[in-house]
Amino acid sequence: MKLKIQAATIVAIAILSVTACKPNESKIPAADQVDNTAEVEAIAKEADPSQAQVDQYNKDENEMAERSEAMAANAARPMLEKAVAGQTGTADNKFVDKMIDLNGDGVLDAIVLLQGMDWCGSGGCTMMVFEGGKDAMTFKSKSTVTDTPIRVAGTKTKGWSDLIVSSDGKDRKLVFDGNKYPSNPSLVAPAQGDQVTAAKVLIPSS
Known about the structure:
Blueprint: H1 2-21, H2 37-47, H3 51-88, E1 95-100, E2 109-114, E3 120-121, E4 124-131, E5 138-157, E6 160-167, E7 170-174, H4 193-198, E8 200-203
Antiparallel strand pairs: 1-2, 2-4, 3-4, 4-5, 5-6, 5-8, 6-7
């Protein structure tokens, strides 16, 4: 019985405490009440950026990524030129290229499209792919009769990005077989229209 009385007393004290702490809003004159609706809306607007602000943020992020990639490509260019010379047998090479991480290891690889009569014919030119490394670029693949545009798809095969190149007048999807890309793109089945549309152009048509 004594425990029940003590419990009832504690509850009563708690209720009185809450009642005493609760502000008596009915005693505040209407004229003295502050309308903070505008302030709340301003804070909410600041916390919820507009679409224009989101777009600008994404644009800035993309530009920073592009600048960083350009710097890395410039640093790797001597290695690329040396690697190309190792495959052609001469340092006097004309080519267009795009450095991009094809295998997801965080290091730029390179797609090279050789130029000149020794490497080009009516069906296109020779494309080479090099794998990037810390101190050198390693030859990975060679494809003949390849023309621009050269695109990279959003899909991967055996750890390497799928490529879409023009060959024999059609866009062809090249997939990595674990060792290399197809050596003759003209023999590969044409890419689907949605695959071409979704792919990113790496080397545009000249």
